[in-house]
Write a structure and sequence with these properties.
The structure holds 2 protein chains of 2 kinds. Chain A has 20 helices and 16 strands. Chain A is α/β, with parallel strands linked by helices. Among the domains of chain A are: about 35-85, no CATH class; about 90-175 and about 280-335 and about 360-430, D-Maltodextrin-Binding Protein, domain 2 (3-Layer(aba) Sandwich). Chain B has a domain at about 85-275: MetI-like (MetI-like fold), CATH 1.10.3720.10. Chain B has 12 helices and no strands. The chains are: A alpha/beta, B mainly alpha.
Chain lengths: ~450, ~280
């Protein structure tokens, strides 16, 4: 993508992503990555055992090996085939996002040219709240959108909105949330002392709601009767914390860090410390869009997967922070975004903490994530009656598509759709959700 | 030497403004003391947390922000970052569209209701029920049925502009002096002509009052509606700056919203004066 030379904001020196000296170097860099991806897949196919591959390469030398493989397999042609797999049915797309760090891959793909590389013209539109994102995607104003990962499940099941088949194409970010408390509570770090307090959460169907409830309940606090949970938009969380209307919140970045930056709160616990590798936001689309424009959808997915892989590399985080901080995207001080993305941050209590995986990016939509969310929906009474956990998870979380596209992009994708994990030390087995659910002392079922 | 009342009023206005600005400046410049901070840590923190100063901007910050916004009001840095001039144009266009639609519906309907006591009574319960509903309460319904956020915003403007105009038109029409109507009847004036040459001029000032009230309400509502649906408009601008917790830019936007609202009101006041005549 070349910058428009008549755009006053465009730089003609350098490239569209800012990382390379020129547009040509940028393009070459991408082509090299694509080529490397094809070569990796190929060599993996020829040598399933890595030891054999290394032995072979050592024996004949890299140049000979490349030449030998190139005679039987056209690497260049395969790279090209991957670069343009079927023209997109619809080229100009609208993707909605909420201005928080979870949307990093969706946002950065626009200024850094990941959409353009797939032949798409994507307009990323900032949206005022989760309910509006939901309504605008339901009525077709957006082709795809940034959603909280439980939202497509809720929409598909018809909770809080008319039922419509919705899909999680990719998880955007893992970790990267926190419980932020007002500075006046700095000596009350034990949740058992939190009875009667008020907390902010961004949305009913959010990982934030489930994690906060889980955390409180594990400490013997009933989230429905002992404390008050209030739906508050992220920006309002900081303002309400300053005004003393809430005592704390479990919210998305950058607003936890923003509360620290503004001197009104401290980071009590990072969501990573509750459940390492938990999903947060999702890249979601309606089944209708996926059926009507499969190539556009695949191109979008490739762009998002590509961007997510790029964001996963800690070396790129500062550059990404600079790309997404301006008013057109997150509209936050760059230093705040940088602290979130690099994981070197002030905790609000006078310490600098270093936690490089404070937020991370991994696109694979594990179906066990969906099963866990369903158990929490049932636990807190959002979902009543029997539910076929595995079926809903399989339907909504498109693990197979994501795996295929990830492998095409040369990324290593997990071989299975489910995995077990532990949330606050409690093991979760996705094949026995009811058993997991009945293990909780505080629940509404 | 005594000055005219207008001049004295203006001087007093300026004095009040100066006092207000001075009080504001003093209130925000009270320097707080911040706890000693490690310089490395301080680099990661915001100005107000490091210096202990109030996060509330002073008049000088606002003036700077106003200058920043007005120096280049029509810039376009992408979908989500446009100049304040473009945002205002969107909001004014939405208000104009919704308000004109309301005029088209409310004036003829108000005429019919005002001229017929029977219809007046029949419509009255509905008007009384629908009038006090906050226009924003219609928003979810509009989004759901219209399926387009831009048109939903216009619909909300339409619905909030409708009632004052309808009620004022009906009142203006029904309270035309009976002597004039009787004279017209004596001269055997046809109903259409009676409506256009006698009732309309007589009711015009009341109708214009309704329009003026409507446009004021519409301007109040558009900001809230745009904060909800986002995308473009001055309401979106306020929301976007609020999201950045930039109080300075929020205050700048508030000032500009006030100025535009005043201009709209004055325009209709002029129109009202033009159709009013001494009896």
């Amino acid at each position: 993508m070349s910058p428009n030379p008549f755009d006053p904001a465009a730089r003609l020196t350098g490239c569209s992503c800012g990382a390379h000296a020129s547009q040509a170097a940028h393009d070459a860099g991408h082509d090299a990555r694509l080529r490397r991806a094809v070569e990796t897949t190929l060599l993996r196919a020829i040598f399933p055992n890595d030891t054999n591959r290394r032995a072979f390469l050592r024996a004949v030398g890299t140049t000979t090996a490349t030449a030998a493989i190139a005679t039987i397999f056209p690497i260049a042609a395969a790279t090209e085939a991957l670069a343009d797999a079927g023209p997109p049915e619809k080229k100009s797309l609208k993707v909605g996002f909420i201005p928080i760090n979870c949307a990093t891959p969706i946002i950065m793909a626009a200024p850094m040219g990941f959409y353009a590389k797939q032949g798409l013209e994507v307009e990323v539109v900032k949206t005022a709240g989760w309910a509006v994102v939901r309504d605008k995607t339901l009525n077709g104003e957006y082709d795809a959108a940034h959603m909280l990962s439980p939202m497509p499940i809720a929409i598909s099941l018809g909770l809080g909105a008319p039922a419509q088949p919705y899909r999680v194409a990719a998880i955007e970010n893992i970790n990267g949330q926190a419980i932020t408390m007002a500075l006046k509570h700095r000596d009350r770090r034990d949740p058992r002392q939190w009875k009667g307090m008020t907390f902010g959460i961004p949305f009913d169907y959010s990982i934030h709601n489930y994690l906060l409830r889980y955390y409180l309940a594990e400490h013997g606090i009933d989230p429905d009767s002992d404390v008050q949970l209030r739906l508050i938009a992220p920006a309002d969380m900081v303002a309400n914390l300053r005004a003393g209307n809430i005592d704390g919140f479990l919210g998305p970045e950058p607003f936890n860090q923003r509360a620290v930056y503004d001197g009104v709160g401290f980071l009590h616990v990072l969501s990573k410390e509750l459940w390492d590798g938990h999903p947060c936001c999702a890249f979601a689309a309606s089944q209708k869009f996926i059926t009507d424009a499969p190539n556009s959808f695949a191109a979008l997915m490739r762009a998002i997967i590509d961007a997510t892989a790029y964001a996963h590399d800690p070396a790129h985080r500062s550059e990404i922070a600079a790309a997404i901080a301006p008013a057109n995207y997150l509209n936050q001080p760059q230093i705040v975004i940088e602290q979130v993305l690099t994981g070197t941050f002030a905790d609000g209590l006078g310490n600098i903490r270093k936690m490089p995986d404070r937020i991370d990016f991994d696109p694979f939509p594990w179906q066990s994530f969906a099963v866990w969310m369903l158990t929490q929906m049932k636990r807190w009474g959002q979902l009543k009656g029997d539910v076929d956990y595995a079926a809903v998870a399989r339907e909504v979380f498109l693990a197979t598509d994501a795996r295929k596209l990830m492998q095409q992009a040369g990324l290593s994708a997990p071989a299975t759709d489910t995995k077990s994990f532990a949330v606050m030390g409690r093991n979760f087995d996705p094949s026995a959700p009811e058993q997991y659910l009945s293990g909780f002392a505080i629940r509404r079922t | 030497m005594t000055l005219s009342l207008a001049a004295r009023g203006a001087i007093l206005s300026l004095l009040i403004l100066a006092l207000f600005l001075a009080a504001w400046q003093i209130a925000v410049s009270g320097g707080g003391s911040a706890p000693a901070m490690d310089p490395e840590y301080a680099k990661l923190m915001g100005q107000s947390a490091v210096t202990g100063h109030s996060a509330m901007p002073g008049p000088a910050d606002i003036a700077r922000g106003l200058w920043q916004a007005l120096r280049d009001p029509f810039y376009d840095h992408g979908t989500n970052d446009k100049g304040i001039g473009i945002q205002l144009a969107w909001s004014v266009a939405r208000v104009a569209a919704g308000w004109l639609l309301a005029v088209i519906v409310a004036v003829p309907l108000g005429f019919v209701i005002g001229m017929s006591p029977l219809l007046g009574r029949a419509f009255d319960p509905f008007i009384q029920l629908l009038k006090p509903i906050s226009p924003l309460a219609w928003m979810p319904l509009a989004l759901f049925t219209i399926r387009d956020s831009g048109i939903s915003a216009i619909f909300v403007i339409f619905i909030c502009s409708l009632w004052p105009m309808l009620i004022n038109t009906a009142f203006g029409v029904s309270s035309v002096r009976t002597e004039w109507l009787n004279v017209a009847r004596t001269l055997e004036v046809r109903p259409i002509r009676r409506a256009l040459t006698i009732i309309l001029p007589a009711a015009a000032p009341t109708i214009l009052t309704g329009m003026r009230i409507s446009v004021g309400i519409a301007w109040l509502v558009i900001v809230a509606a745009e904060m909800l649906v986002g995308g473009t408009g001055i309401g979106y601008f306020v929301w976007n700056e609020w999201n950045n917790l930039s109080i300075t830019n929020v205050i700048v936007a508030i000032l500009i919203i006030g100025l535009v609202g005043m201009a709209l009101d004055q325009a209709l006041a002029r129109a009202q004066a033009a159709v009013t005549f001494p009896q």
